Amino acid sequence: MARPAAGPVEFDVTDIATSDAALRQVLHGLPGVDQVGAAERAAALATRSIKKDAKLRALDMAISMVDLTTLEGADTPGKVRAMCAKARQPDVEPPPAPPAAAVCVYPDLVAVARDAVAGSSVKVAAVATAFPSGRASLAVKLADVEDAVRAGADEIDMVIDRGAFLAGRYGQVYAELAAVRDACGNAHLKVILETGELVTLDNVARASWLAMMAGADFIKTSTGKVTPAATLPVALVMLGAVRDFEQAAGRRVGVKVAGGIRTAKDAIRYLVLVNETAGPAWLTPDLFRIGASTLLNDLLMQRSKQRTGRYAGADYFTID
Amino acid sequence: MASGKGKSGTGLARQSGRGRSEPELPQAAVSWEYAPAPESRDVVSIAPEYGLFVDGEFRPAASGKTFATVDPASEERLSLVADAAAADVDAAVAAARTAFDRVWRPMPGSERAKYLFRVARLLQERSREFAVLESLDNGKPIRESRDVDIPLAAAHFFYYAGWADKLEHAGFGPAPRPLGVAGQVIPWNFPLLMAAWKLAPALAAGNTCVLKPAETTPLTALLLAEVCQQAGLPPGVVNVLTGDGRTGAALIGHPGVDKIAFTGSTEVGRQIAASAAGTGKKVTLELGGKAANIVFDDAPVEQAVEGIVSGIFFNQGHVCCAGSRLLVQESVADAVVDRLRRRLTMLRLGDPLDKNTDIGAINSRQQLDKITELSAAGEAEGAQRWSPPCRLPDKGYWFAPTLFTGVSQSHRIAREEIFGPVLSVLTFRTPAEAVAKANNTPYGLSAGIWTEKGSRILWMAQRMRAGVVWANTYNRFDPASPFGGYQESGYGREGGRHGLAAYLSA
Prior knowledge:
The complex is a heterodimer of chains A (320) and B (506).
Chain A: H1 13-16, H2 20-27, H3 35-45, H4 52-65, E1 66-69, H5 77-88, E2 102-105, H6 110-117, E3 123-127, H7 138-150, E4 155-159, H8 162-166, H9 170-184, E5 188-192, H10 195-198, H11 201-213, E6 218-220, H12 232-249, E7 254-258, H13 264-277, E8 288-292, H14 295-308
Parallel strand pairs in A: 1-2, 1-8, 2-3, 3-4, 4-5, 5-6, 6-7, 7-8
Helix pairs in contact in A: 3-12, 4-13, 4-14, 5-6, 7-9, 11-12, 12-13
Chain B: E1 49-50, E2 52-54, E3 57-59, E4 66-71, E5 76-82, H1 86-104, H2 109-125, H3 127-138, H4 142-163, E6 177-178, E7 181-185, H5 191-204, E8 208-212, H6 219-230, E9 238-240, H7 245-253, E10 259-263, H8 266-276, E11 282-286, E12 292-295, H9 301-313, E13 325-329, H10 333-344, H11 365-380, E14 384-386, E15 402-405, H12 412-415, E16 422-428, H13 431-439, E17 446-450, H14 454-463, E18 468-471, E19 490-491, H15 496-501, E20 504-505
Parallel strand pairs in B: 1-5, 7-8, 7-10, 8-9, 10-11, 12-13, 12-17, 13-16, 15-16, 17-18
Antiparallel strand pairs in B: 2-3, 4-5, 6-20, 11-19, 14-15
Helix pairs in contact in B: 2-4, 3-4, 4-5, 9-10
């Protein structure tokens, strides 16, 4: 049967969630993604030249969209507190830079982060569901989520079961997503697709739709623990998916790119992609985030250069 | 989600009342305007006046006449160039003949290759200069001249340089011979690139050349002449004559020319074929087109939309192989056109030197008039016209990207080459109907096929009467790939091993 090439995918969600076959029909009925064409488009948008006021705007937007992240075995309360301080006040130079969108930590450090960002706009995000591999029973994953939510996480960054997805057990992935979503309560749910393990852009599109149908508030590229992490073509496909999903379902889902985004130049390329794919409505921390550990200082350095016309030394930017 | 969290909104219910014809962009909570990012025009110095390039030197036309070349984005005069007439053609052809007999033909292929490699490298080294000059003289966005025209021109010289000492292995017999003096007349849409397409294979094969760039875009060909000097190319091997159609006619009709290569309109191509008949001159013609870009219901739709856009709006549609007819399967036509409209609202029209410009200026007043006339005919014949909201600059020649829906094969806009940013959308029901409609044109230069089904790509490609068939892409060029047409799109191939055939006798 020919697949519909375009337009809203029409479905009744109560029916499709019930079986792998029904989900397969929907997901494999999405328009295909041509790898070469997507890469070409992403590369073309990467040549946009963002200068002057547009660049200043971009840098401030990017700062306000950063999920400042530390996900190491060596994380300590002290490290997390320092990072939270940085997120609240990234730069001391006037005019003040906007705070970061969130800090992202492992569940056991949520309480520390919660205290450290109290009274600010900075959200606390926790990676959960046996991050980064997702290899645990559903009960363990749910306990992980509940733990983080109880400790005060505003946002949960979960991982999908890539094994189940690649094996075609879409029903299982969906059920897990739905269960995690319920466990989130009022916390926002970001769904990490780990696109580096899904490999094809067709899979990226399908996983995006599966997550959105199951109620994701955000879809997120990567854990940062797998290479490749975020890439421009993957982000392009996901941004197209959230735009099409809004057309079909009337709900705006956000996108978070994470992993390997270290320079202001990279960040601005993603913003261009957002602007010209999902549209300018997505240019807000409510709908676009950049997960990063080292990006923030480059954004600050470029911001100061843009204002003063010269680069300040690295030691003028704090390394918290 | 039926059972969704309250805060996430309306779940999967379709929004009601959304019309098909007017896709809405999400209301912008913020907008982010890109600041102007113009490429500096200081990288190129344009002389107030240019002579003809004959026998390795620049000289005024024998008549002393000149004409102006303008920046189509501002109507500002860029320079004066010499207007070559019969006496100048005589001189250039004589210089080319001497160079052919005394220097270029006797020279070993490996030595000719060195010159071509040198020209290629100089094109790369001076690419920014060439790109800015091309955008100034032609009106095309710097993004395209920088990323497409100039790199491809250099690639062409590199590619054919590699052939120069391997001609006996090219499949044209053990000792293929050059033809002699080639008279080459090129169009204004890709001024430098077309010069490269013509010169590189001719020179590699051992011919000498007299090149006539288009009247409205002579400057990069003259800069290329300067590069030939810089590369130490022997005098007379490449000659450049500027002028209008009369100069071209004089060159093509000159008895000292052994080979005619022309890229341009079908109308002029016909005259050339008629005038060359019986003269013994070899002729290759690359003429117009009215290509179909065929989108099936199983196409990768996002990339298909990009392909449709680049197919017709690349270089303002001034492309002989432009995908000017969109043939879309009726079952997905509305959805594809919706996506296309949304995409067209993102196109940035304006200053060709701005690095973020997608659509530049129309090359000349004359071309603008032609596009305007044919578009008006489309409306008069009942097709529905649409353009994205788009402010056109006050000065210069501009035409907004335009989409016609409800077009049928009998409309002029589906038959005549518009050579502008105007897309005609037609529908089909079955693959056979798509083939029939795509082939139902006197042209036959190119076609695009968009489907994820590999077997259908092959089935379609076998049936398309088109010199180039792109599958799931459009307007892709490579010097190794031959390019050329069927029927009224001309004959002969440029590019690849096939491109050598036009300049060799076996």
